[in-house]
């Protein structure tokens, strides 16, 4: 049961909940945008714009389910449960027919179009129509799975309302209603029936995955995305290592060089602070794992380039050449981070940071102007860039390129 059904302002509540869903769902999509592209590259061999849009819709819809059925959360005070209207669960199936009939008794038939309880029933149906559509076409599930999962999700929502979010509140602040469960399930059923008609344009997961191993052109966007992934992986891994090290030092009761107290974790993230040597070690280890270790194995491509199915063309280059190529890209970023952590207060660190940023920026800018979109690091190391799948031999048994080893 939504808050509007509990006596709130219907139009105002629906608009407010819709705004919350757009905000939370949109934010979730932004945060998950890069992981979504990574997953699609690995699962389908390339991104699917239609399914990226679908992911955004799934995020907004998931947030809508929460906002319309759980929010706003009540502010509690002593004795607040006793002041709430009766929240005894409504367990009589189709009880809404009696309520709507009583409300419309003696009035014109078209009064149902503005009746609060009738609109609430319609809303409960419409709320789960997207569920059936999404499960059938976006997640490629069968009709029965789409309907059954809608039933289970609705049942979970009603149980959550009945238990006051599983004991978070000492009493139910929403009315659990069996009619909501029935109407939600009906909505999922209608959505599952309509899915092939409304979402026919959505490519299926199996169809996209069938072409996963087919080589594709090396585009500048693909090269850029691999470079962005390298930088993101380096920073995330570095700060995870730094935080884990700081937490270990703190829990063990040791003191790092200089001064470290209970704010050790945040202190290590401040360049030039007492924890700078530990921070520098974190950046060095992250650089080794993200840039240099991959250069020693397989094609020698960085992790980001491997994710987007890119790698050096031709025979495998000597180890020193692969390490040189890693140093021209990720090594420069690693060196900048390490020097900043150790010498943040030095007068020469500012110009050095500017130089590193300019070189990294130039690497991005030159990608579309370089031969085969290979970029600065590949050009300076004398290496061509290719789709990693184009260098594999076809699998005679399957009639398609074999799975890349990297």
TrEMBL record:
Alphabetical list of InterPro entries matching this protein: Teicoplanin_resist-assoc, VanZ-like
Residue ranges occupied by any VanZ-like domain in the UniProt entry: 60-198
Transmembrane residue ranges: 13-38, 50-70, 110-131, 143-169, 181-203, 224-252, 283-303, 323-344, 350-369
Region (Disordered): 387-406
Keywords: Membrane, Transmembrane, Transmembrane helix
UniProt-recorded name of the protein: Glycopeptide antibiotics resistance protein
Organism the protein comes from: Arthrobacter russicus
């Amino acid at each position: 049961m939504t808050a509007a059904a509990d006596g709130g302002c219907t139009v105002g509540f629906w608009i407010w909940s819709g705004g919350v869903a757009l905000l939370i769902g949109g934010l979730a999509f932004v945060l998950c945008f890069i992981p979504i592209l990574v997953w699609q590259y690995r699962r389908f061999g390339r991104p699917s714009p239609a399914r990226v849009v679908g992911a955004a819709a799934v995020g907004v819809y998931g947030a809508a389910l929460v906002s319309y059925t759980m929010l706003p959360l009540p502010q509690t005070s002593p004795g607040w449960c006793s002041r709430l209207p009766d929240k005894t669960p409504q367990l009589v199936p189709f009880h809404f027919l009696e309520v709507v009939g009583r409300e419309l008794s003696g009035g014109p038939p078209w009064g149902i179009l503005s009746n609060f309880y009738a609109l609430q029933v319609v809303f409960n149906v419409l709320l789960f129509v997207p569920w059936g559509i999404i499960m059938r076409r976006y997640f490629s599930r069968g009709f029965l799975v789409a309907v059954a999962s809608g039933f289970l999700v609705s049942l979970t929502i009603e149980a959550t309302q009945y238990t006051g979010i599983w004991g978070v509140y000492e009493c139910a602040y929403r009315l659990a209603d069996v009619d909501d469960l029935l109407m939600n399930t009906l909505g999922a059923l209608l959505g599952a029936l309509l899915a092939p008609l409304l979402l026919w344009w959505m490519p299926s997961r199996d169809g996209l995955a069938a072409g996963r191993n087919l080589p594709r052109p090396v585009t500048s966007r693909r090269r850029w995305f691999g470079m962005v992934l390298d930088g993101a992986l380096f920073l995330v891994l570095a700060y995870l290592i730094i935080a884990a090290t700081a937490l270990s030092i703190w829990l063990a009761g040791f003191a790092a060089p200089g001064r470290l107290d209970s704010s050790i974790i945040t202190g290590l993230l401040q360049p030039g602070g007492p924890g700078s040597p530990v921070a520098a070690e974190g950046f060095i280890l992250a650089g080794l794992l993200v840039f240099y270790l991959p250069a020693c194995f397989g094609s020698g491509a960085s992790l980001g380039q491997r994710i987007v199915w890119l790698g050096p063309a031709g025979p495998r280059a000597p180890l020193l050449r692969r390490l040189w190529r890693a140093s021209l890209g990720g090594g420069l970023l690693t060196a900048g981070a390490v020097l900043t952590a150790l010498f943040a207060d030095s007068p020469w660190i500012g110009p050095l940071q500017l130089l590193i940023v300019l070189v990294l920026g130039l690497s991005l800018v030159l990608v579309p102007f370089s031969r085969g979109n290979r970029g600065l690091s590949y050009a300076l190391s004398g290496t061509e860039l290719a789709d990693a799948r184009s260098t594999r031999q076809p699998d005679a048994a399957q009639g398609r390129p074999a799975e890349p080893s990297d």
